[in-house]
């Protein structure tokens, strides 16, 4: 569809999938094959994904939340265990700890990049802490050398919720190989989609074996393995879930992976155009980027300088939506959600940096098929709206 007609009928979204004819063909081929699920495409997707991120093992599951749950199970999180989670993330990062009966302990973020604050991580460690679940918020890697040091000193597992960051690097090392367990989502707004889908990567074969059982009811062999062995017998050795992904989804994932490097590059080019366009706009600031990180740009987040404008973020949000720009807010800090407040007594004041940032952030459109015209439209609208609401110096 030409972009002009797209714009007249709908918002420019903050994120969207891109599907090629090859993707459609790959899915159709599987639909005509013998295996719709638990077939050969699952291990093929896992092998290719592991190779792409430079990890020994990859385990595919039905969504990113299941990936987080499996990661918590994989490293043995259970009742009484605490896992440190940044407040600025999607609720699933913390919820996965609860699924295992553990306790998420919220820590604050850095004001410049909204990534996990290392000194607050250290402050939140107790004798019950078992793991740190860092989040590569927006697609910018956390400081894994520093996190690794903290994890080693306190004997903690390091989990990377890398749902934003596939295709990114940290000091030349690929996201997916930076923590003990690394989780990904293949939801349509993410870089690579399977409709719904997720993956965990690890260099630890014991973790991988545990997670493969976990995604299949806690049963030690899958349907195809039994077919091949000509056997009906199986052992259920632990309480697992049906977190399997289908073969046609994995075929889509394999096909999408071909375009992943190009799509990350395009996102970086969009970000560069935004960066240049917003330099000198005093009413806002993009998040800071480290020089030793290659940013995967799931999101492009700006922070409004509310003290330099006459309106609040909600008004800027509405103005941009009126211009057909589907801005969004990522995220309401998890500890401010009613569930956590009511059940765990969390609330305002616990993570002041994340709470203050939450009042100011906006996610601008960022996806692989954005055109120059789309970018110009966003830039022009943001600049006009900032000018309209700027606080005149008295
Ligand atoms: C998308 C996302 C998830 C959850 O993934 P689903 O596939 O939607 O279950 C978890 N954490 C973060 C940071 C995400 O962005």
Structure notes:
- α2 (21-31) runs antiparallel to α10 (247-278), α4 packs across α8 (205-214) and α10 (247-278) crosses α14 (372-389).
- It is built from 14 helices and 13 strands.
- α5 links the parallel β2 (82-86) and β3.
- It is of the alpha/beta class and 394 residues long.
- The longest helix has 32 residues, at 247-278.
- The chain folds into two domains: 21-257, Aspartate Aminotransferase, domain 2 (3-Layer(aba) Sandwich), CATH 3.40.640; 260-389, Aspartate Aminotransferase, domain 1 (Alpha-Beta Complex).
- A seven-stranded mixed sheet has the order 1-9-8-5-4-2-3, sandwiched between helices.
- The chain is 41% helix and 14% strand.
- Pyridoxal-5'-phosphate binds at residues 63-65, 89-90, 92-93, 135, 161, 163-164, 185, 187, 198.
The main sheet comes to: 7 strands, mixed
Number of DSSP-assigned strands = 13
Number of helices: 14
H/E element order: HHHEHEHEHEHEEEEEHHHEEEHHHEH
Overall geometry: globular
Q: CATH class of the largest domain, please?
A: Alpha Beta
| Helix-and-strand structural type | alpha/beta
Question: Which blocks of ≥5 consecutive residues have pLDDT under 50?
Answer: 1-8
- How much strand content do the residues show? 5-15%
Q: Radius of gyration, rounded?
A: 22 Å
The kinds of small molecule bound in this structure are: pyridoxal-5'-phosphate
Corresponding CATH superfamily of the largest domain = Type I PLP-dependent aspartate aminotransferase-like (Major domain)
Query: Per CATH, what is the topology of the largest domain?
Result: Aspartate Aminotransferase, domain 2
């Amino acid at each position: 569809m030409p972009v002009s007609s797209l714009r007249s009928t709908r918002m420019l979204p903050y994120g969207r999938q891109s599907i090629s004819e090859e993707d459609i063909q790959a899915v159709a081929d599987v639909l005509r094959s013998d295996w719709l699920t638990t077939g050969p495409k699952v291990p093929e997707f896992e092998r290719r994904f592991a190779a792409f991120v430079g990890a020994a093992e990859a385990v595919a599951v039905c969504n990113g939340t299941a990936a987080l749950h499996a990661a918590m199970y994989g490293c043995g999180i259970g009742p009484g265990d605490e896992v440190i989670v940044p407040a600025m993330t999607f609720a699933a990062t913390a919820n996965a700890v609860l699924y295992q009966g553990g306790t998420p302990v919220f820590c604050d973020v850095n004001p410049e990049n909204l990534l996990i604050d290392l000194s607050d991580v250290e402050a939140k460690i107790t004798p019950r802490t078992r793991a740190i679940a860092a989040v590569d918020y927006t697609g910018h890697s956390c400081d894994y050398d520093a996190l690794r040091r903290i994890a080693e000193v306190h004997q903690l597992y390091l989990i990377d919720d890398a749902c934003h960051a596939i295709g990114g690097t940290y000091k030349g090392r690929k996201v997916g190989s930076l923590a003990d367990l690394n989780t990904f989502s293949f939801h349509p707004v993410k870089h690579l989609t399977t409709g719904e889908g997720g993956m965990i990567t690890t260099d630890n074969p014991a973790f991988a074996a545990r997670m493969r059982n976990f995604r299949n009811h806690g049963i030690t062999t899958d349907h195809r393995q039994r077919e091949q062995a000509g056997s009906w017998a199986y052992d259920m050795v632990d309480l697992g879930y049906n977190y399997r992904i289908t073969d046609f989804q994995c075929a889509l994932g394999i096909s999408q992976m071909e375009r992943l490097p190009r799509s990350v590059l395009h996102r970086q080019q969009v970000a560069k155009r935004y960066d240049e366009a917003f330099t000198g706009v005093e009413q806002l600031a993009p998040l800071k980027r480290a020089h030793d990180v290659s940013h995967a740009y799931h999101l492009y987040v700006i922070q409004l300088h509310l003290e330099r404008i006459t309106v609040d973020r909600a008004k800027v949000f509405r103005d941009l939506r009126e211009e057909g720009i589907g801005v969004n807010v990522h995220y309401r800090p998890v500890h401010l959600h009613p569930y956590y407040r009511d059940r765990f007594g969390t609330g305002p004041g616990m993570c002041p940096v994340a709470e203050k940032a939450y009042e100011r952030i906006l996610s601008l459109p960022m996806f692989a098929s954005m055109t120059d015209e789309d970018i110009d439209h966003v830039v022009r609208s943001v600049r006009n709206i900032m000018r309209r609401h700027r606080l005149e110096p008295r």
